Amino acid sequence: MSGTLVLVRHGQSDWNLKNLFTGWKNPELTELGVQEANTGGKALADYGIKFDIAYTSDLKRAQDTLKIILENVGQTGLETIKDQALNERDYGDLSGLNKDDARAKWGEEQVHIWRRSYDVPPPGGESLRDTGARVWPYYLTEILPRVLRGEKVLVAAHGNSLRSLVMVLDKLTKEQILGVNLATGVPMVYKLNADSTVLSKEVLGDMSGAH
After folding, report:
1. Average pLDDT over residues 55-77
2. pTM for this structure?
3. 158: annotated active-site residue
4. How many CA atoms within 13 Å lie on the side-chain side of 133?
5. Which of 107, 111, 149, 164 sits 20 to 30 Å CA-CA off 52?
């Protein structure tokens, strides 16, 4: 029997709140972000899952979200692997800029293309395809084998690094993934078949807060 893969996007960060492009920068969670992580952790506790290992990115907001979730499920000492392969998409020259300021500088249409196209990167940064190019090999070599051995694996990461995984797991086209937004702090529970395809997917919590 194959295992379970749980994906959680970190709670709201200070820069999400200020409408800034974050990327590989390292802002703290807001009070709401902490609350979202606690809500996600409580949902997993209610679900009754116990994890064998956790993965997170090299960035503090994802690590802090993971820590809060593990406190809620009573697994504070769980083995955790941190890797920048799971980092948020690198927004390059846009990192730290207010999204409205970026639109004023480069134009609404150009910024929309950078944010929402699949393969057009912002200056000095990554496209969603580029993000996937580092997330997918890491998933295939490090995370998937453990799930296929029957382990329960928790991944706390970012909107775009997780979107690139969801794209593969949910078999979405590059057009379909552009319309997908992952809610902050909401766990997605995947059970996988032995051939690594998805047996079932369950979203724990209210998706109306997706943004």
Report:
1. 98
2. 0.94
3. no
4. 8
5. 164
Residue 160 lies in domain: 4-209
Instruction: Find out whether 9 and 186 touch, Cβ atoms under 8 Å.
Output: yes
Q: Which residues pair with 13 in a beta bridge?
A: 29
Dihedral of the alpha carbons of 37, 45, 153, 193, in degrees to the nearest 10:
-120
Query: What are the tokens at 55?
Result: 């993965």
- Residue 36 belongs to domain with CATH number: 3.40.50.1240
Is the pLDDT at 211 greater than 50? The verdict is no
Contact between 65 and 11 under an 8 Å Cβ cutoff? The reply is: yes
The rounded mean pLDDT for the chain is 94
Q: Count structural domains, the chain.
A: 1
Kindly name the residue from 10, 36, 126, 158 that is annotated as catalytic.
10
Q: Does the structure show a pLDDT above 60 at 208? A: no
Catalytic residue, chosen from 36, 88, 126, 158, is 88
